[in-house]
Design a protein that fits this description.
The protein is α+β, with helices and mostly antiparallel strands. The protein has a single domain, classed as Orthogonal Bundle (Transferase(Phosphotransferase), domain 1). Helix content is 44%, strand content 14%. The chain has four helices and two strands. A two-stranded antiparallel sheet has the order 1-2. Helix 2 packs across helix 4. The longest helix is centred in the last third of the chain and has 18 residues.
């Protein structure tokens, strides 16, 4: 996926990451090659989907973590914060714009 397309849809992608974290998982190596775009929305039958409303998937959980399985709760919290900071950088958010990122993250969990 090209970076301009990611930045254009950054709030959707941050929302995916937030839901992943809320389910007690980290991806472990968030970067461009681990985010794919597909026609959406996924609520429509396949033949009615288009890239006008893209859907995204996060792939490759080989370095991921889950508390109680392969890390402690404390280590998980550190990894979540690391992924949050990584997403800010990868998706072109201004590092001063944590409020916008947090609203993307927490707004997507409602």
């Amino acid at each position: 996926m090209e970076k301009p397309e990611l930045i254009e849809n950054s709030e959707k992608i941050v929302g995916l990451l937030a839901r992943l974290h809320a389910a007690s998982f980290t991806q472990g190596s968030l970067n461009l090659r681990n985010i794919v775009v597909q026609p959406g929305p996924l609520t429509l039958p396949r033949e009615e989907r288009s890239l006008d409303e893209p859907s995204f998937r996060i792939l490759d959980f080989g370095r991921g973590s889950c508390p109680g399985v392969n890390c402690t709760i404390e280590r998980f919290a550190i990894r979540v914060e690391g992924e949050r900071r990584g997403a800010i950088s990868l998706l072109g958010f201004d590092t001063k714009d944590y409020g916008r990122v947090d609203s993307c993250i927490y707004g997507s969990l409602k």
